[in-house]
Write a structure and sequence with these properties.
By secondary structure, the protein is α+β, with helices and mostly antiparallel strands. Helix content is 28%, strand content 32%. It is elongated.
């Protein structure tokens, strides 16, 4: 499809967001088909939809990354950005919200208010985005669009106001009443036709129109005064309040329909164009001068200074990097040069593209208000700002959620080892809510949003870059220490013809809580010459690094060399290093050795109704709750929890809170492992050591 250049007033950009399974992608497909942008209607379940085109999406039958499609609706160019509803992929919604002017929250008429919808609404509200709701699947078995509307109002408040009244529900759903103009529309199997308002809906129509009036009147003081006085508010007055109210985020109207059957789609497109803002309606974008940080307001203007956000990066093994862009001001030209203000580097722009799912249409330029893409940028990453070198402008960075599920990763084969590093680096370009770390035990960790996120990253690594990985639970970075004090002898003697080896030390070992490893000497009378001291210290430290009890580093002890002997010919530094190592290993076992485990400071954010369950669960993880606070909407529980108990917590917390809980964790201290658990760890180490021999 070819889109002609249009003025700002005839551009709309809208995010489709909501809980998984609400039918966002199917709705987008139906809107594209209705607008003539696609020749046939694809289906998510058949893997034929325009916007779920990645093999992983087709296999799972759900969206895993944002997808963009642009179509012309009677002279208005509408760009939709479809987003995943599954919580592991919320970073895609964060990116989409940063690129669009409005948001449509899609709701399953039979599913209630899910966590994905709550998260999306929170994102929209924090950005003060203009919003509408669409109650989808009103014709499905057990669907109850009226109950869905009431659930939305109960959860999000009375600013969520009905624009439509459903006619029927589930298998009897056949259309809707437009509450502004008081006209009824029914699906006759091919199209929506106007019918008289059903008599049985008269009382409900009055009640629901009053809810709409109450919310919309807030947008205009004169209309509000009329409403409060009980005077009649005309349809044009209500319509004007709706336009202003939606654009200023005073209310969010609720429409109803069925994406599969095509009911309510014309009204939805009308709502996009009537109520959602164009770039010309939006307040000036707030940018700042990169060096000074001085704020600069930049209105949408194709002739204005260049201001572009890179809001998504897709790694493609054939095209290379594909970067999705939103132009806020100015005009971006193909085959030109721009300034990446985030990185302070020049970037060359190649071929610009309009995106229609997996299809791309080359264009010469992207103007203010448009969303498009460009291939093969070299320095630009997700969230970066592109502007001109003459007038550098920078937007605030995007704030992605912190990943909290860590798995250890290894290449599946030797061949994968060579590809893994580069493949991970390329993969992470398109995954702003994942990262790769190196653990204290030396393992490579992939930290992501959840099990599905890790599985999808693994599948894409193999498909796109030919690097297969295997995952397993990370190793806990235990430490060893001592609790007692002893004096121990270490003697290494190897005297067989010619030059021999001789080293002999007496070392005092004692606990040194929190002090790491300390080495000292108080040798008198030269029983051990000074030139052997460095070798002795190295022997102590090397043996400590290997561990004595269970193969974990030994720490928090002091070793003092106080006596020993040497041989004038056979002694050397290596002999004393070995003697010191022998002394340490023997002495540790005499000093009541103990295993220490990392204790994490955990901060869990959950709605209040889950507090009891979360606290009980933390107790089963050997956690100690330190206190509770609130962040305004949710409760925040602080606790100390052993790291060993947290590897699967991201998944289990989500299950416990129906997707509404999040947490962060950082190492706080080390504490002694309870005896029954320590014995298991030590026994496992012994078995491994024996198997190794």
């Amino acid at each position: 499809m070819t889109t002609k250049s249009v003025d700002l007033a005839h551009l709309r950009s809208v995010v489709l967001a909501g809980h998984a399974g609400a039918g966002k992608t199917t709705l987008a497909e139906s809107l594209l088909f209705r607008a003539g942008a696609i020749p046939r209607l694809g289906r998510v379940d058949d893997g034929t939809s325009t916007l779920d085109y990645e093999p992983e999406e087709q296999k799972r039958r759900e969206s895993l990354s944002l997808a963009v499609a642009t179509f012309d609706d009677d002279g208005t160019i509408v760009t939709m950005v479809d987003t995943p509803g599954y919580p592991d992929f919320v970073a895609e919604t964060v990116s989409a919200v940063a690129a669009c002017d409005g948001v449509l929250f899609v709701v399953d008429a039979g599913g209630g208010v899910g966590a994905g919808l709550e998260t999306a609404v929170e994102l929209g509200r924090s950005s003060r985005m203009a919003a509408c709701f669409f109650i989808n699947k009103a014709d499905r078995e057990n669907a109850d669009p009226t109950a869905a509307l009431d659930a939305l109002r109960a959860t999000f408040g009375n600013k969520v106001a009905p624009l439509h009244l459903a006619i029927g529900a589930a298998e009897t759903f056949s259309g809707y009443v437009d509450l502004v103009h008081r006209r009824a529309w029914q699906w006759d199997g091919k199209a929506e036709v106007e019918i008289p308002i059903p008599a049985e809906l008269a009382a409900e129509l009055d009640r629901r129109r009053d809810q709409l009036l109450e919310a919309a009147a807030e947008a205009d003081d004169d209309v509000l005064a009329k409403y409060l006085d009980g005077a009649e508010v005309s349809d044009p007055e209500l319509e004007a309040c709706l336009r202003k109210g939606v654009k200023e985020s005073i209310l969010a109207p609720v429409l109803v329909g069925s994406a599969v059957r095509g009911i309510g789609l014309r009204a939805l497109l009308d709502a996009f164009i009537r109520y959602l803002p164009s770039p010309a309606d939006e307040p000036a974008t707030q940018a700042h001068e990169p060096k000074s940080g001085d704020p600069i307001a930049v209105p949408a203007d194709p002739a204005g200074p260049l201001l572009v956000r890179a809001f998504k990066t897709a790694a493609d093994p054939f095209v290379g990097r594909l970067t999705y862009l939103r132009v806020f001001s100015g005009t971006l030209h193909a085959q030109g040069h721009v300034w990446n203000a985030t990185r302070g580097e020049e970037e060359r722009i190649g071929q610009l593209l309009l995106v229609h799912g997996k299809d791309q249409e080359p264009v010469a330029e992207l103007k203010a208000g448009q969303i498009g893409a460009v291939a093969k940028l070299t320095v630009t990453a997700t969230g970066d700002t592109l502007s001109s070198r003459e007038l550098p402008l920078e937007l605030d960075p995007l704030r992605f959620p912190n990943p909290s599920l860590a798995v250890a990763i290894e290449p599946q084969t030797k061949a994968d080892l060579d590809k893994m590093g580069a493949a991970l680096a390329r993969m992470l370009e398109e995954e702003p809510s994942a990262r790769v770390d190196r653990s204290a035990t030396g393992e490579q960790l992939l930290v992501a949003m959840g099990e599905a996120h890790i599985a999808v990253i693994g599948e894409r690594l193999k498909r796109k870059f030919g690097a297969a990985i295997v995952t397993h639970t990370p190793t806990v970075p235990y430490r060893e220490t001592i609790r007692g004090k002893t004096q121990v002898e270490g003697k290494y003697k190897k005297q067989t013809g010619g030059h021999g080896m001789f080293g002999h030390v007496w070392i005092e070992l004692e606990a040194n809580p929190g002090g790491g490893i300390e080495f000292a000497e108080r040798v008198v009378g030269g029983s051990v010459p000074k030139n052997y001291f460095p070798g002795i210290e190295k022997g102590v430290r090397d043996a400590a690094a290997e561990g004595v009890l269970a193969g974990y580093p030994l720490s928090d002890f002091k070793a003092t060399l106080y006596d020993g002997s040497f041989h004038p010919v056979d002694s050397n530094e290596l002999s004393f290093k070995i003697a010191a190592s022998m002394a340490l290993k023997k002495g540790v076992m005499e000093c009541r050795p103990a295993l220490l485990e990392p204790i994490m400071l955990v901060s869990v954010t959950v709605p209040e109704r889950y507090m009891g369950d979360v606290n009980r669960d933390l107790n089963t993880r050997r956690g100690r709750v330190l206190g509770m606070d609130t962040d305004g909407t949710n409760q925040v529980v602080k606790a100390h929890v052993p790291q060993a108990e947290l590897f699967s917590y991201a998944t289990e917390l989500r299950s416990l809170t129906h997707g509404r809980g999040t947490f962060t964790a950082e190492v706080d201290s080390y504490e002694e492992v309870p005896a029954f658990l320590a014995e298991k760890v030590i026994s496992a180490h012994r078995r491994e050591a024996e198997a190794g021999h």
